[in-house]
Amino acid sequence: MEGILFALVPMFAWGSIGFVSNKIGGKPSQQTFGMTLGALLFALVVWLVVRPEMSMKLWIFGILGGIIWSVGQTGQFHAMQYMGVSVANPLSSGSQLVLGSLIGVLVFHEWTKPIQFVVGTIALLLLIVGFYFSSKQDETNAASNQLHDFSKGFRALTYSTTGYVMYAVLFNNIMRFDVLSVILPMAVGMVLGAAMFMSFKVSFDQYVIKNSVVGLLWGVGNIFMLLAASKAGLAIAFSFSQLGAIISIVGGILFLGETKTKKEMRWVITGILCFIVGAILLGIVKS
């Protein structure tokens, strides 16, 4: 029970990032830079408390991973701007899960047993169906659609997903570091990457400073993800963390005023149910 409670923290923390940052406001570059400053502050505190051993290899790959992460996060903020949080976040999470799983299977041969292929395939299909319904738009909701630019949103999601999946593959399949050790180099890379998107013309305006709170959410989610994995196992921790997209959908509707027609709400509920089952099944396959 304790492990499940721990697993709920990254679900809410990471799921809240999108709508909290968009509620604060700012351009995607400001949102990303502010978030990375908060993450760097969190990482410094962790380093001061834990004092892990730091090698040159860890610093190099940690900074590289952080820069790659910033590509994913900046793209996600752009997608939210163009599509809305309640649409962009589930699409982003879904595309990461599907693409990441396919790379894991095809490149790194993570599935070896027939049952893994059966359950994993069902999980991926459920995720695809879930994210299709959660982002499906009602043509009669013209007022909402006029505010969105889905073509730009999908382009942003493309490079966002590429960045996030490269980041995940780097730390999960190519290099394996203790999270508490690599979090500081990674945060440094995140700040550098975010600064690159601002052409190094960084400013510490109100939007940047306020968005640093979002970086703290990111850090708290990471710590509790570790605690959940140690108490309840990686399958539970992974499954619950991926359900943060549900928080994004609800948060976008409740706190950002993203309107949904009755038909869209039915689609969203269908998508959420498919998403929950798919993420849990994928977590079981990974265990």
Automatic annotation (TrEMBL):
One of its GO terms (cellular component) is plasma membrane. Signal peptide: none annotated. Keywords: Membrane, Sugar transport, Transmembrane, Transmembrane helix, Transport. It is found in: Cell membrane. The chain crosses the membrane at residues 6-25, 32-50, 56-75, 115-135, 156-174, 180-200, 207-228, 234-255, 267-285. Its main location: membrane. InterPro entries: EmrE-like, Sugar_transport. It comes from the Bacteria. This is EamA family transporter. The lineage of its organism: Bacteria, Bacillati, Bacillota, Bacilli, Lactobacillales.
